[in-house]
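Mods, move this if it's the wrong board.
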Amino acid sequence: QVQLVESGGGLVQTGGSLRLSCAASGSVFSIKAMAWYRQAPGKERELVAGIISNGIARHQDSVKGRFTISRDNARNMVYLQMNSLKPEDTAVYYCAGSSWYDDTVESEYGMDYWGKGTLVTVSS
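Not the wrong board. Structure tokens:
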């Protein structure tokens, strides 16, 4: 089994930056694609960015140019650098990983490991 724990959330002003971290433990050798999702109040959870085991990443249009996903396989970590934050980025951010899927992340398909989330609040 794999456990994912997010950290780095908090309160930031519009235009500010945060770096989210996701630490994986357990059978980490089994993790293939990983991704960050977010769920804003009253909305469904949505994909933010995904990255496969070789480091190729893809970001949703809403965060492209502002957010960057990266991973450190040696340290079993995944990061989300968030710059130029906007109030609409306010959400609980979740880290997820797959034990078998290792292609472009376009949804929650294949994700079988989930963290409990970290809250990001962007004030206007």
